[in-house]
Amino acid sequence: MTLDTSAVCKNTKEYRCRKPQYSPYYQCIEDNYEIFERVYERKYQEKYGYLRLIVSKVIYQYLEYVLS
């Protein structure tokens, strides 16, 4: 092992598996998205337009992906 190689080995960190289901973003989506969908038409549609179907599709794909 050369001096350069040993320096690299000492500085590398061990890979830690991510757990996105514990992230604040995931928790926010998991806890609030269904409520958001229910109230969107009444609260936000006039100002922002209708809620596009692709938004719900992507959100639910994300939630499924994280748990798989």
Could you walk me through the main structural features you see in this protein, from its secondary elements to its overall organization?
This protein is mostly helical. The protein has one domain (19-67). Helices cover 71% and strands 0% of the residues. It is built from four helices and no strands. It starts with a helix and ends with a helix. 0% of the residues are buried.
Tally of DSSP helical segments: 4
**Total beta-strand segments:** 0
Query: What multimeric state do the chains show?
Result: single chain
Helix content: over 70%
**Head-to-tail CA distance between termini:** 40 Å
Mean pLDDT: 86
Biggest β-sheet strands, sense, barrel: none
What is the rounded Rg? Answer: 21 Å
Would you spell out the secondary-structure blueprint of this structure?
Elements: H1 3-11, H2 24-43, H3 45-48, H4 53-67
Key structural traits:
single chain, 68 residues, mainly alpha, 4 helices
Could you give a short description of this structure?
With 68 residues, the protein is an all-alpha fold. The protein is 71% helix and 0% strand. The protein is built from 4 helices and no strands.
